[in-house]
Please model this.
Amino acid sequence: MTKYNDARRRFLQASIAAGTAALLPSGNLLKAAETSADKSFPETTFSLDGRKIRIYTKSISEPVRIMHVSDTHLYLDDERGDKYREYSDRMSKAYNSTRNYKNGAETNPMEMVDQIVEEAGAQDLDAIAMTGDIVSFPSAAGVDFILERFGKLSVPRYYISGNHDWHFEGMAGTERELRDEWIEKRLKPLYPSGANPLCYSVKVKGVKLLFIDDSIYEMLPEQLEFVKKELATMEPTAAFMHIPLYAPGRSVAFGVGNPNWNASTDGNYKIERRPRWPEKGHTETTYAFRDALLNAPNLIGVFQGHIHRQSLDICEGKPLHVTPSASDGSTTSIEILPM
Ligand SMILES: [Fe+2]
Model:
């Protein structure tokens, strides 16, 4: 198969960046984009149809089915959170009332989790991938709720944090310090036993899944080394993370490796009571991370959250998909299928 035609790729990327929502209802419109950037990796394409993304590849022999869940934004809390109320106050009042995306009925994130668990139980899934903002702050009650509800299922569940899961707003400390502290104190049970919360990989049938914490927008040298090492095996690999990678035409919220990400574009640091983004923008490590990921021929897709609305970009021929917020019951079905 030939490499993806540059002009067509630019056209597709521009079209999709201009309005994914407008394009989606037409159904199976994207059965087009090759994700192979190198002939040494077997032919791979994908399609997007509503909330179902299918990746077809000659690199596997049996199907892999994944439910992608992100941004449930549970606001639950109990007496274990009493002494942290000044830090959880704002987010504990967010997403208290949502609307079920299926019928518009007023609901809340906990009811939506129940709906999602029921849907997952009715499907033949190989994994559930959770990409952060599952809890709106490091709430022990919220973590317990997720463990109890998803614990009803036998399907393996993999989690990586978002920017809210570990964040007590206004608490002293750098973002790296707070992330480390509250993952250890609250979020640890959500991860697979023994997993490094900053980056870990699992193998699901013939596909490698990378879970990478990009919840402070900046990547650490060990995370760059991790992706290089994991991708070097040339196995078909999908990446899961909270904050979307930079994609031309998108807002600065698509922030990892975004050249526009810096202090002057940080509109929320006061509201979120966190350090302002740096004057100089990203580190070289963060740019190198995005390059290493997207230029790997065996990367078959990147699955992200944070934005709360569905979108699809194609960068370096790879699909970068954002799943809508599960606070309204949304999930994405990812099917990786033999060609
Ligand atoms: Fe987020």
The chain has one domain: 6-338.
